Amino acid sequence: MDSQSVASQLFAVSLFPYLGLRSPKARQRRSKTAPGLTLFGFYFLLVFVSATIPAGIYAKVHYGTLLSNVDWLHGGAESLLTLTNLFIVLGLRRALRKLEEEGTDESVSEASQDSAEKSYV
Q1: Where are the transmembrane segments (predicted)?
Q2: Dihedral (Cα; 43, 45, 49, 55), 10-degree rounding
Q3: Considering the entire predicted model, what is its pTM?
Q4: Which among 16, 32, 37, 114 is most buried, taking Cβ atoms within 10 Å?
């Protein structure tokens, strides 16, 4: 058993956890507080996996080598992974900014309430 066959088998097995994200039960359990764009990023990971498998097969059949050795195919597949990471990070960033804005609004309203109470005293 060589390292290429082990790697391809591990890659194929790694597809199952991602498919679990798409199950109806997973959608029911999903957090209501998770940012939508971040969830989309995790679902987009399935696009990366789904595109990488045929690209790997194409590289093996037409070029007789691994996907990582065919630059244009590998670059295309990695660009999908980059998009996935961007969706996840931008969704989390947007959620953090929203929390910061809500925290600022609450502190401003608390400060104004405190000053109003002090003016009556």
Answers
A1: 36-60, 72-92
A2: 120
A3: 0.64
A4: 37
